[in-house]
From TrEMBL:
<protein>
    <submittedName>
        <fullName>Uncharacterized protein</fullName>
    </submittedName>
</protein>
Amino acid sequence: MFIERLEAKDYVSFAKDKLNLSFADIKQVKNGMYIRLLVREFGPSPEFVLRDFVCEGINNPISKENEIPLQKVWREFLAEKFGEEYKTACNSFLKKQYEDGLIK
């Protein structure tokens, strides 16, 4: 819906401008976009699957620990990019999650 409309440069901009991190890798995966970020030259790199409304930390504890904070920044980034269209869709998604008991 929204991530399909983003280009590779948008993900690079997200990493650099919003997270102040270097961008290491990107590839399309089922229902999302895999990204790997560089925190340091050596050591574990945070890895995430980004979707329209969620961010899933994968493959290491650093990713899992930063899943929710990154998700907040990701939603803010998409809201800036797509405006009211995104905000309305995200609110509908979150309302449905709440009604289904998936979030409190």
